[in-house]
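Lab notebook: predicted structure, single chain.

Context: the supervisor wants predicted structures on file for every construct in the current expression panel, including those that have not yet been purified. This is the next one on the list. No modifications to the sequence; it matches the entry in the shared construct table.
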Amino acid sequence: MRGLFLFCAGFSVLALGCICVFLFASGVPFIGKVGLGNFFGTKWHLNSEAYGILSMIVASLYLTALSTIIGVAVGLLTAVSLYKFCPKNAVAPIRQLINLLAGIPSVIYGLFGLIIIVPFLRDKISPNGIGYGLLAASLVVSIMILPTIVSVSLDALNAVPKAYYEGALALGATNEQSVFRVMLPAAKSGILAAVVLSIGRAIGETMAVIMVIGGSPVMPKSLFQSVRTMTANIAMGATELSGDAATALVSTGVVLFFFTLLLNMSFSLLKGGEKRGKPQKTNT
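Prediction complete. Output recorded below exactly as produced.
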């Protein structure tokens, strides 16, 4: 078993190494070839050899931020409700139903957004009569990340010692004050992990986003505008492009890799700072 576990760990490291070699061996030289000004420009036009992905970077950041804000707000309040404000016999069924969302294929979410969300936004909310765009994609992705936020946040709340809650009640706090002012701050480490996982899911989502965001490689100026994210750009051209255009997609993957690396490093730094900030136990 030790050999089997060692093989699995080594295979994971090898797979990551192969992906890194593939990305950097093809993507970095291409960025140097076309120049940073061209690659991080605002125009993506393959016929004129314009490979600017800045508009896609901005669209990806807008989508990730908006979907995370919506998903975290709804998911965290749902976890709090399941933790203390929901009838005990209803917690398990509701949690299982929410967990089922994680097993639904991305294309089904995209189909739901295409048939339900996009027409609703187009007919009821959009000022320009366009339903596709960042808002539609953000709503779809926020639903997709709900299981992660609810499950991890609820586990973090359940891991907090019950004495914290009981002590707050004993000091005169209400039920709501005990949960929101004592239990939530005590579970912030787990909640932060849920937020980081949801951000990673949001920035990497592809199929559902392609179906509801439109797909135009232009700079986002409105929530109701056809735009394109980096992942959508890679998926839309992966089977059709060749030559420098295909290598440009690999270079886009390099940028995505750096975003993921930056996200993980930020989370590690936050965790490290939190551990250093905790008071040390002393023997008396």
